[in-house]
Structures are given as C-alpha cells and as structure tokens.
Amino acid sequence: MSLRLHARNLACERDDRWLFQGLDLEVRGGEIVRIEGPNGSGKTTLLKILSGQLTEYEGELFWNDTPMRQAREHFLANLLYLGHAPGVKAGLTPLENLKWYQALSGETGNETARFAALESVGLAGFEDLPAGQLSAGQQRRVALARLELTPRALWVLDEPFTAIDREGVAALEARLVAHARAGGSVVVTTHHELAASTALRRIQLGQGDNLAGI
Amino acid sequence: MQVSDTAPVASAGVALGEPGGNLMVAITATLKRDLTLMLRRRGEMLNPLVFFALVITLFPIGISPDPELLALIAPGLLWVAALLAALLSLDSLFRSDYDDGSLEQLMLAPQPLAALSLAKVAVHWLLTGLPLALMAPVLGIMLALPAGSYLILALSLALGTASLSLIGAIGAALTVGLAKGGVLLSLLVLPLYIPVLIFGTGAVQAAVFGDGVTAHLAILGALLAGALIFAPWAIAASLRISING
Amino acid sequence: MWAFIHKLGSPKWFYRISAKLQPWFWVAAAGLIVTGSLWGLAFAPADYQQGNSFRILYVHVPAAFLAQSIFVSMAIAGLVYMVWKIKVADMAAAVMAPLGAAMTFISLFSGAVWGVPTWGTWWMWDARLTSMLILLFLYLGVIALRGAFTSRDSASRAASVLAMVGVINIPIIKYSVDWWYTLHQPATFTITSRPAMPTEMWLPLLLMVLGFYSFFIALTLMRTRSEILRRESNKRWVRELVEEGQ
Q1: Cross-chain residue pair B26–A105, CB shorter than 8 Å
Q2: Mind telling me how many Å the CA of C154 is from chain A's nearest CA?
Q3: Of A88, A96, A183, the CB nearest to B14
Q4: Where are the domains of chain B?
C-alpha cells in the first residue's frame, strides 16, 4: 500500500503577504503530522492546500508521486477533511447527516454502520434528534463519527479537539494513533498537546520567511 | 512504541480506495437532503409566495382598481413580482451550507461540484419557482387577466423561473462569503434576468392577444437550455472562490 | 511560448514596455480627437432632418462603441487572469471597469441630450438606450462585487467570473431588448442607425471612434501602471525604481 503526499517548495501568498515560503513536507502512511505555529501563520491555509481545496499556491504538490492536478480524483476519494466548522446540518438528525456524507462519496451505506459509528463517538441515543438540539461538542462528535464510518487513508483535521470534553479528547487521540498504526496518516492542527509517539512529527510554521520543518 | 512495518490487513480503514462512487447516489442524496431541510422549515418556504401575493396586492392600490387597465399591465406585473419573489429566496441558497461548513465538504466530495450544485438549484426551483408558477393564475384572476392566458402564464413562469434559479445561483455563489450579500446579489443578478423577463411577459401578452405563443416558449426553453449548460460551471467556480474568501 | 506569455504577464516587464507605448497612444488620441471633433463640429454638413443637433453623434457613437468593447476586454482580461494567473491582466480589468462605466454613462447622457431635439423628451425607451442602461448596471455590479471582498485575490477572481458571465449575456440581452422594442414600437426612428450617411459625415466619426479607442488604451496603460506600483510596492524592483528616481 502506498500513501504519500508530498509538497516541494510550497509557498502561499495571500494579498501580497507570504504566509509561508519554501516549504517542503512529506506525509507517509503511518504518520501523524502536526502543523504548529502561532495564530495567523497559515496553518489553516496549509491544510486547505493539502486537502486540495485551495489551488492558489506556488510550488508542487504530489499525491503518490503524481502531480495533484492529475491525481485529484483519486486523492479526494482517499481524503477525509474536517474543517473549523463541523459541517453538521442543524436541521437534520445525526443519522441523516452521516447518510448524506456517505452518499457524497457515492455509497449508499447501511443504517447499522451509521448507528455503530454514532455509538463509537458516544452519541448513542441521540441518533434521531435534530442536530441543532445537540451541544457544540456533540455536533463535533457527529462530524468525528465520519472517521469511523467512511474509511479513508488520509485524514486532514483542522482543530478537531475544539469543543470536545476531556474523555472525548483522549478517545480521539487514541483513534488518531490507531489510524496511523494501521498505516493511515493524519495531518492535524491543534492547540491540544499530543502525546509523543514515534508516529508523531511536527512541522513548524511562522518563523521567518524561509523554513522547512520536521 | 513500535509502528509495525506490515500494515494490518484486517483494518479496512487504511486501504487506498479507488474513485468512482456512484454519482447518481450523491445527486439523489443531495436532492433529498435539501428537500428535507426546506420542508422542515415550511415557514421560510412560504415567504416568497406571500411576498408574491402582497406585491400583487400593492399594484391595484397604487395604480388603479380599473379592471381594464389592470388587465393590460397584468402580464408584466405578475412576471416582475414573481421574479422579485424568486430573487428574495436566493440569498439563502448556499448561505446555511456555507455557515455550518457543509459547503466545504460538498466541494471535497469526489464528485463533480457542478452536478451537485445543480441538484441544489433544482431543489430551489422546485420549492420556489414552481409554486410561484402554480400560484400566479390565482393572482391573475385578481388582476382581471383575460381567461385563456392562465395556462401560458403558469407555463412561462415555470420555464422562466428555472432559468432565473440557475442564473441567480451564480450570484448567490459569488456573494455567499460576504457578510451582507443580499442587496449586492440583486444588483448582480437582476440585469441578467432581463431576457427571461422579456420573453416571459411576451408569452403571456401574446396569449392575451390571441397570438401564437410557441415562439416565446421556445425561446424561454432555449434560454433554459443555455443556462443549464453554462450556469453549473459558473456556480462551481464561484463557490470555489467564495469558500476561500 | 509559455515563457513568453508569462514574461508578458510579468508586472515588471509590462511596466517597462508600457512606458514606451503609452506616449504614442496619447499622441494618437489627442490628434484624432481634436481633428475629428473640429471636422465633425465645424465642417461636416448639417443633417437634412435633424440640423445641427445630429453632431452629438460624434460623442455618442464612439462612447457607445467603447462602452461595449471595454466590457469584452474586461472579460478577456478576467479569463486570462483565471486561466494563466497573470496578475497584470487582473490589474487591467480592475482599472477598465470604472472607465467602461464612465463611457456607458457618457453614451447614455449624450443620448438623453440628443433626445431633446429629436424626440422632445430626455428619455425614451429606445432599444439602444435601454441596452446601454442595462450595460451600465452590469458594470456597476462588477465594480460593486470587486469592492465587496476584503481579500483582494478573491475579489479579483469573483469580478473575473462575473465579467465572463456578463459578456456571455450581453448579446442575449441586446437581442431580447431589440425584439422587445420592435414588438412595442414598430418602425420608429432610432437615432443612430440610418442608411447612407454621406462620407463627409462618417469620416470624422471614424476619426473620433479611433481617437476614443486610443484614449482608452492610453488611459488603461497609465492606470494599470499605477495599479502595478500600488500592488507591487513591496517588491524589490519597485523599491529600486523609487530609489533611482530620487
């Protein structure tokens, strides 16, 4: 199995300000890569580039050694991105939300798997409530249930620990490590300190103009 | 801690998948999702219809209750009021998806964004354009629109509002990232609505005068076909711009 | 080929080459407009129907031509910017929009003034005037959209998309307005399209049209240059330029 996302000489300019320049990075299967840096150092922008949303950058991005522009479809089929906003519709129940996400990747999925996924994030009993009635943390958990439900190799997570209680944080962290052990990879930004493990690497943003981190 | 070199085969979570899920599944699910969401907020769905009726009520009061005069201007009034009512609901087309982050996810789906946004526009037309078209004959009676033109009125509105939804969605996609996009949206979209308005009212007027209406309806159909071909791409491009604003 | 396109699009290169081109267009614009208006206002014969009032055509027609051409140029610049990410194209599109709106307004205003002796009223829903009015709204939409974004990159892209959508719609709008007009007022007198204009009338008109186009190119070059300086003010070559100047 090959999973390799790498960027060469990546640079992003937003309105005449360089967020970062000359960034080389590589993400392989079995790794958790934590993007670090102060506010405004371009963490979210980098994640948006790495998740293929933002195409306005300089440098080159490769997915399994194919340039991203050509590999986009294959890349998206293997990506799970969770952004700042959880992407959970308040007017739909958690089950309906998950169903739509499954359908977006072209699968009909089945109800049992959705129930199981919701249970694994501690939402058993909330499956049929409109998501708008859930707390912010619970809504975040609905989004996190997608990690269980949709098998994707690469996870790109922007502040996934936001609004989650302590137990949830521990469970999520364990989940990330398990995913890496199983050969998947995780790119994550977070203010929460991740426990050191061999799978964990750090990339530092926002220290001058030219930097490449590991 | 040791990361094993041989990835566990049992874990399905990490195998690289191939693209090519069923596009129809994604489209159907998006249609269903948007319909469910809209039908759960029925009040919001009724607003354009009430607005339509209200605006039509204003004209006899503002101009004159004289049936002959009203009959003369009814095609234009009905069309302009329906157009404004359809416009009113456009701002919310992508707004809530933008706010809660699902628009981001829609763009990352391994499916063509143009097709998925077309599904969203279809729901918009189904729940605003079509009801407006069905309601128009009732308001036509109130404006003393001559009998015999009601079918054409509804038909032209049904065809025309589909184009309006498509063109309007481009504007909605361009302004969804802006905090106050509402008025700007009208400014962007209304000039582009003019051809539809011209042929829509033209059809109803022709029906009133007993002329042939096929040409008008054919042109409305052609405009719709053009919008169907071009608008989805423009909508997709605009959404990509807005999401990174 | 690609290298050439990108070189053409480099702000520095454009800044240098436009400095050389710009004076020629100014001279051409001044020469053509002065000759054209002297000829058109003083020497061309009066119209047998409208008398001297027809002479407003020498402003109205070039302005109307330019108003439409600028929108097309703006959309092309937007396309170039979107496809090849050439920033100069966007800067040009940004400075063209207000210019185009101004030209549209001039053509509308001169049309209204012309309407007084011709129709006895300031405004008629004439097909051409109506199309022009809609064009003005399209311009205002592009300008407003560009102004509404806080991020300039997003503003540029949004304005490009809207300009392209607009340019596809302009012929449709024009066609439908013409159709609408003939339906409501068959066979009335339109102010510009008339058969057989004598040579001594249209020749100065041609000069005026060419003069207006030269003026547009010169002004766009000039304003794009200042836009380049504004946007690239933190680049090294601009700083060096400033230091050289001092």
Answers
A1: yes
A2: 9
A3: A183
A4: 23-243
Whether residue C5 is contained in a domain is answered as no
Give chain A's radius of gyration (CA, Å).
Answer: 17
C-alpha A161/C-alpha A143 separation (Å) is: 11
Length of chain C, in residues: 246
Q: Could you give the number of structural domains in chain C?
A: 1
A209 CB neighbours in chain C (<8 A) are none
Please tell me if residue B94 touches chain C, with a CB cutoff of 8 Å. Answer: no
Q: Which of B170, B194, B223 lies nearest to residue C134, judging by beta carbons?
A: B194
* Residue C85 is assigned to a structural domain of this protein: yes
Show the tokens assigned to C142. 């592009």
What is the SS3 assignment for A1? coil
| Enclosing domain of residue C191 | 21-245
ipTM: 0.88
In DSSP notation, C151-213 reads: SHHHHHHHHHHHHHHHHHHHHHHHHHHHHHHHHHSTT---SS--S---HHHHHHHHHHHHHHH
Taking only the tens place, the pLDDT of each residue in C51-85 is: 788 888 899 999 999 999 999 999 999 999 999 88
13-72 of C, contacting A, C-beta below 8 A: none
Q: What is the pLDDT of residues B178-228, one digit of tens each?
A: 987 788 999 999 999 999 999 999 999 999 988 888 999 999 999 999 999
Provide the residue ranges of all domains of chain A, joining segments of one domain with +: 1-78+153-214, 88-151
The DSSP code for C42 is I
Any A CB within 8 A of C231 CB? yes
Q: Is residue C1 part of a domain?
A: no
**What is the side-by-side strand order in the sheet with A79-82?**
A79-82, A154-158, A185-189, A32-36, A200-204
Beta carbons within 8 Å of B224's beta carbon, 6+ residues apart: B159, B160, B162, B163, B166
The reply to whether C2 falls in a domain is no
Check if the beta carbon of residue B171 is closer than 8 Å to that of residue B242.
no
The domain defined by A1-78+153-214 folds into Rossmann fold (3.40.50)
